[in-house]
Amino acid sequence: MSDKSVQKKKYILETARRVFGEKGYGCVTMKDIVEACGISRGGLYLYFSSTKELFLEVLQLEQLETDDVFAKNIPKEAGPAAILALFLKEQKKELLERNQGLSRASYEFLFEHAKEEGENFMKKQFDSAVLVIQKLIEAGVESGEFYCEDPRRAASNIMYVLEGLKIASLTRGITQAAVDREIMYVMQGLIIED
Questions:
Q1: Three-state DSSP class for 105?
Q2: Hey, which residues does 191 pair with through a beta bridge?
Q3: What is the pLDDT of residue 86?
Q4: Within 10 A of 184 (CB to CB), how many other CB atoms are there?
Q5: pLDDT in tens, 128-175
Q6: Which ranges in the chain belong to alpha helices (H)?
Q7: pTM above the 0.90 mark?
Q8: CA 43 to CA 50: how far, in whole Å?
């Protein structure tokens, strides 16, 4: 793919991310993307054959960018507790965003395509996050920053709390105080008091 093609595809993905973020998944058509990008229908179909294909690539782009931002914000000397706190801070920021980026669209996509094999990207993301948190907790136990008898279960619990907060935020709204309270509760279960 030429440099110009790579740039055009990136432009389409970034524009589509904005459109999906504003409208959700179910309401977006290829025509919406064509209009938002200001390109021809054929120009869009050169890169993507459907909103499903486009949305999956948008999600991949979003995950890569989120991972990069998170990795860049971790201080070199940070221990497991500081890294977990940074992760939870980033989650809090997303929870308190008015439209939560692609969260609503992601749930819509999941419900529409739930039966298709290999399409459960949210489960993959969840399981991946559990594994990362588990490794952080294990490292924190080893360094003496955390106390935890079952790091895998604790990591799963953290992710279930975050998932529940995300759904609550989308369906009924959530306050910063509520998010802080839940995150503090999670952390209190791990941090060793001096």
A1: helix
A2: 146
A3: 86
A4: 12
A5: 889 999 999 999 999 999 999 999 999 999 999 999 998 888 888 889
A6: 3-23, 30-37, 41-45, 51-73, 80-96, 103-112, 121-143, 151-171, 176-188
A7: no
A8: 13
CA–CA separation, 118 and 56 (whole Å)? 12
Give the pLDDT band of residue 72 (cuts 50, 70, 90).
confident
Residue bearing tokens 């136990």: 141
Nearest to 176 by CA among 96, 73, 58, 84: 96
Among the listed residues 70, 58, 75, 121, the one whose alpha carbon sits nearest the alpha carbon of residue 94: 70
How far does the chain reach from its first CA to its final CA, in angstroms? 57
Nearest of 129, 104, 138, 135 to residue 22 by alpha carbon: 104
Q: With 80 as the cut, is the pLDDT of residue 79 above it?
A: yes
Which of the four pLDDT bands, split at 50, 70 and 90, describes residue 54? very high
Residues comprising the chain, all counted: 194
Distances in whole angstroms, Cα of residue 159 to Cα of each of 51, 52, 73, 101 = 29, 26, 21, 18
